[in-house]
Amino acid sequence: MNRKMWLLGWITLLGFGLAGMVLVYFFQEQSMAELLTGHWYLPAQFLLGGLTGFLGAHLSKWLILQPFFETEKIRYRVLINHWSWSGKGIVFISICAGVGEEMFFRAGLQPLLGLWPTAVVFVLIHGYLNPFNWRISVYGLLMVGLIAFFGFLYEEAGIIAPMTAHAVFDAVLLFWMTKGNNSTEKVWENFNSKT
After folding, report:
1. b/e string for 82-93 if b means 16 or more Cβ within 10 A?
2. pTM above 0.85, yes or no
3. Mean pLDDT by 10 residues, the chain (195 residues)
4. Closest CA to 53 of 150, 159, 157, 120
């Protein structure tokens, strides 16, 4: 794993995570211990989160494989494969994003903004709702629903469930998007021949 990827992971984990903890501390009436234990037993949260992330990733993969999405799939493969990925790097980035972003968006913002507005903000920030690209926006609408479900998991089960779901979702898609690419140059050749 290269230094930039390592640094990006830690910034995501600590930056978003600490910002979320600050929002919880100053604007909510629950302790960090209550936040981390949640309403369900931790093994149940891990299991539910893992299943949700796995199923959500496969639903996203199904949409990405649709013929209308081919150009975007190639564009994202090129973007993702710009980095030199290893299995450890994928797991590290996925855990950092799952823990850090969920602490901020689900635990920090969602109680202040509400479930659906937080889901929309999350997807907007990630660039999946784009008025200039209807294909990406179709994917974005799927993501709004999935992220809202992560918010539902937070409210019903606890923060560990959406953290796990997010990490598993990212890992499954990253392993899939980085698998089988002989080189970034071949991906670029395919991209350039389709545009």
Report:
1. ebebeeebbbbb
2. yes
3. 88 97 94 93 97 98 95 89 88 97 98 98 94 94 98 98 98 90 43 47
4. 150
